[in-house]
Amino acid sequence: MKILTIFRTALSSLGANKLRAGLTVLGIVIGVAAVISLMAIGRGAQDSITSRIESLGANLLFVSPDSTSEETTSTLTLEDSYALIDQTFAPHIAAVAPELTAFGQVEAGRDNTRTRVVGVTPDYLGVRNFDIGTGQFISQMHVDKRSEVVVLGSQVSKTLFGLRNPVGQSVRINGRQFSIIGVLESRGGSALGNQDNQVLVPITTAYYRLGSQRTVQGEVSVQSISVQATDGDAIDNAVQEIAMVLRLRHRIIGEDDFTITSQEDTIEALEETTGTFIVFLGAIASISLIVGGIGIMNIMLVTVTERTREIGIRKAMGAKRRDILVQFVSEATLLSLGGGLVGAIFGLALSRFLDGRNLIGQTFQTSFSGDIAILALVVSGAIGLFFGIYPAVRAARMHPIEALRYE
Questions:
Q1: Residue 69 pLDDT > 60, yes or no?
Q2: What residue segments make up the domains of the chain, in order of their start?
């Protein structure tokens, strides 16, 4: 049989029971639309996380205590960060930003919130690519004098002061009074946490006023040091210089008591994690495709039973098993491909509709790509072929005389 003839016959046979065919196609439509929209949401989340990390700068490195070290709280110190900006030993390092982090209760009048309190130096603003919305940032004078000043994240500012400008006002952090000197521009959430839900204080103030701990040697311990290389091409040299300086300062002979990660390492790890998440979403959505395929098999089995006499007549007139097999397989495949095409259109429309919308407190970002739609169509066609083979084989094996006698 010619392909065009097979297509026309399949279309005519399905058109004889439009409602039944439509309900059967609906399962495939829902399945394909679910696969495309969920994978678009997953990819959108992946792109959003990656872009936020990249916005910090391609030449950024993170130094943190080794997680396998027995004394992870004391392996990095404020003095280590000062040593890293020595151009004699580290010419490829442009700036460093040590961080001393804790959680505290921040109060303003009757309003209060529990948030992250980060002790920083003036270089933090440039190294971490933050911008001041109003007021000023922490200066070296504030660090030297251990001033009780604070810069609020935009979310904390909104929680405590609403739409009012808080610069010049006071807040209490863990019972101590701090003067607000600035508010950061909004950055939103990222793999590094919600950058708007934090307050920044001078690193010396965080240590001396908010109860941070000293190392065994009496130095100020820090949780991490952000290091900015001179440019993206100097990353490898900067890593070697950081390792050399810290090994000398820590008198390390064996294993390092610190780890150095780059933006690329962070992005690769997150892409691997989110890639697994995307596959998981696609697998969940594919369940509905399998259910739709079972629906196609069920309808095709009913169709074979209803058309038993037709099969007998066609075989008596010379139709071969192959012709009957191809005919019923083509009908099943046509159902699944038709449903897949409609589902792809609905999936695209749904992903476009959700892009940038705020639902249940979350802003969705979607990323639709043609390969998702092509994959969904191929899978839907394969499902139609797979679930249509058994009914088609059953029809092809019918004996013409028994088929003609069927009432």
A1: no
A2: 3-53+268-405, 67-256
